[in-house]
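How a chain folds remains the central question behind the approach discussed here. No coordinates are needed to read the tokens, only the vocabulary itself. For completeness, the protein is quoted in full, as a sequence line and a line of structure tokens:
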Amino acid sequence: MNGPDANDSDEAPRHTHSVAPRYRYFDLIVGVFVTALITSNLVAAKVAMIGGYKLGCGIFVFPISYIFGDVLTEVYGYARSRRVIWIGFACAALASSMFFIADVMPPAPDWPNQAAFHAILGQLPRIVAASLVAYVIGEFVNSYVIARLKIATKGRHLWMRTIGSTLAGQLVDSAVFYPLAFLGQPGWSATQIAEVALNNYLIKCAVETLFTPLTYVVVNHLKRTEREDVFDTETDFNPLRLQV
């Protein structure tokens, strides 16, 4: 890598599509993506104090899913990224359902940890629904923007695509999640919702921007190793279409 304006990888063949190749790292990336998504919802239950600011711990995990979402689209293309987004949605919905069922089941009389279990894993249906809706819309915006920018930039300036797609995807995610989850709830005014949404949006974007050099390393390594670099010039961007 020669710098932010270097070509993404001159050694990787450029394709408009691929015919079911066998990849070395694709399954691993999908696993990390889904793990980061589910983990972010779990650790979000803890509020940390950093530099005088209160922050939900999930804010530092969730950007990882966006980074790997960028990697998926940049290397393997929008169509495969689209399938992974829906896999992540299904896994997150399943995990939330299992947490809810376990939480409402009556605890054994001699088990003293129900309150602690509920505090961490007890999930309000409205917040879960808002999180899943925001995730799907934000991820598809992120993936779509990076795919379109890749064509527009002819594969150059990876930093422009990763940061630009994050700015768009996270903006939509925050704009959807916070009003759906908290608008009309006691203790949440519209002003407070807007302030929290803006702060979280800026922090998430800043965190992923700091990861840009690492994203370059991962993307260029994958393009060389997988011998793949998809350009979505003939891709159907319908988010409901699951075929690759």
Observations:
- The radius of gyration is 19 Å.
- The first strand starts at residue 47 and ends at 50.
- The domain at 26-101+114-226 is CATH 1.10.1760 (Arp2/3 complex 21 kDa subunit ARPC3).
